[in-house]
Recover the amino acids of this structure.
């Protein structure tokens, strides 16, 4: 019997994707159901029929999986932020480990390379040191804040997010009350009118310093002096306040222009016993404690020595390279964001690392003599965005031919693709792959991979 839309079926969930979507089979056809657990037996309503698969939604849990736990967030089912609040953390880690393995085998063609057990987080609550919160109005004209639902720009209201520090919730609530009290408008994506678009917060875990930025559809925030005075009296941890100008019709949150209206140009944190300054548009890992674990593994696998020259690509504010600066001869960093390069140079000075040089530019073009001179490079670290490394960068890495390449990835699929490209050259083999859960309860996982030149094995 052919399945039609709105039919109901009984379904055993056999697998769950990294996005938290369950997979079962009905008469040999794959059925995808969001928000379920391996081992669930469900009554499922079919909501989409395709030629090679079906999509359904849970009507009833007939037999719950042993992995299921009680939801601890009222927004979890609607919000696009978390994928795994309904299952145990151990079950989540198994899904992430399997996803990394599947990507490397299916996309990269790597079999039996000995992927290390995923390193879970001791703390899976309130770990995010950076959030960007959209604002809008509800049907009653009240200001709401929260997170976008999956695959949409519909805001799911959230008064308390369990991923971020509690003080962020308090600051967001205070800002909404201030905006309402002073009759400052909130941006409407449909009409393209209104002023305040996003609340952007960063915190430094070990110093408790907070940076606040309001993203606005304009050049100026009304009552800015009153706002600064009120919020800094209420929250002493706020050391820096910026306005970011974004007047474009775009899904990109931040515009190009930052205007400081209070405090310092940056906040300061400590990571791996080193001080780092962080500007509003500079990259800094969102999970402090797991970053220290990640960087510790990176150093363990690389075993840097005093004769090594290290190149850190997509270096951000220089964190990973500078944590190894004392162990190597020379450190070079390349980053395209100018303020991040400025931070990296400041951070080198803070750490007394006069062997470090940082350059502003595209990491894809790493053979310019003005950047590298005639230096031999023994170690290259790459930490690219989700889209991975470009073909140009891969080709340049192969020309440089360092002894070791450490690849840090937030996307196992593009990691697998790039590792395959590098290894197909015949120059390198994958020595170790280690997943680290930087983003508990979400559909993201960090992975590091070490490639070693075959002529030194």
């Amino acid at each position: 019997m052919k399945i039609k839309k709105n039919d109901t079926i009984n379904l055993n969930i056999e697998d769950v994707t990294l996005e938290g979507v369950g997979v079962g089979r009905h008469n040999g056809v794959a059925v995808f159901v969001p928000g379920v657990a391996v081992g669930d037996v469900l009554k499922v309503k079919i909501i989409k029929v395709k030629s090679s698969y079906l999509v359904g939604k849970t009507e009833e849990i007939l037999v719950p999986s042993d992995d299921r736990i009680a939801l601890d967030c009222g927004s979890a089912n609607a919000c696009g932020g978390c994928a795994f609040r309904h299952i145990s953390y151990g079950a989540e880690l198994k899904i992430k480990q399997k996803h990394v393995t599947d990507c490397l085998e299916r996309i990269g063609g790597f079999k039996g390379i000995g992927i290390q057990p995923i390193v879970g987080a001791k703390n899976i609550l309130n770990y995010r040191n950076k959030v960007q919160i959209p604002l809008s109005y509800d049907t009653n004209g009240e200001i709401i804040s929260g997170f976008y639902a999956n695959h949409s720009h519909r805001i799911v209201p959230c008064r308390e997010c369990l991923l971020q520090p509690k003080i962020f919730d308090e600051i967001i609530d205070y800002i909404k009350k201030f905006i309402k009290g002073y009759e400052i408008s909130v941006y409407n994506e449909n009409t393209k009118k209104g002023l305040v678009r996003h609340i952007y917060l960063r915190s430094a875990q070990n110093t408790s310093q907070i940076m606040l930025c309001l993203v606005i559809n304009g050049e100026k925030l009304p009552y800015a002096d009153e706002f600064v005075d009120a919020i800094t009296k209420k929250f002493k941890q706020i050391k820096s306040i910026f306005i970011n100008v974004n007047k474009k019709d775009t899904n990109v949150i931040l515009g190009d222009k930052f205007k400081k209206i209070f405090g310092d140009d940056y906040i300061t944190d400590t990571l791996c016993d080193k001080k780092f300054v962080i500007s509003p548009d500079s990259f800094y890992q969102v999970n402090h404690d797991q970053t220290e674990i990640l960087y510790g593994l990176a150093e363990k696998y690389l075993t840097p020595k005093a004769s090594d020259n290290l190149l850190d690509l997509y270096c951000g504010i220089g964190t990973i390279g500078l944590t190894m600066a004392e162990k190597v001869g020379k450190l070079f960093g390349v980053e395209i964001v100018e303020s991040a390069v400025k931070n990296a140079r400041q951070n080198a000075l803070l750490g007394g690392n006069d062997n470090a040089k940082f350059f502003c530019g595209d990491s894809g073009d790493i053979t310019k003599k003005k950047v590298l001179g005639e230096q031999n490079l023994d170690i290259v670290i790459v930490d690219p965005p989700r889209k991975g490394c470009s073909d140009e960068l891969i080709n340049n890495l192969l020309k440089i031919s360092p002894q070791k390449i450490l690849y840090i990835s937030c996307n196992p699929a593009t990691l697998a693709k790039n590792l395959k490209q590098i290894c197909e050259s015949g120059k390198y083999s994958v020595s170790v792959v280690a997943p680290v859960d930087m983003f508990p309860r979400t559909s993201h996982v960090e992975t590091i991979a070490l490639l070693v030149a075959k002529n030194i094995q």
User: Anything to note?
Assistant: The two ends are 59 Å apart (CA to CA).
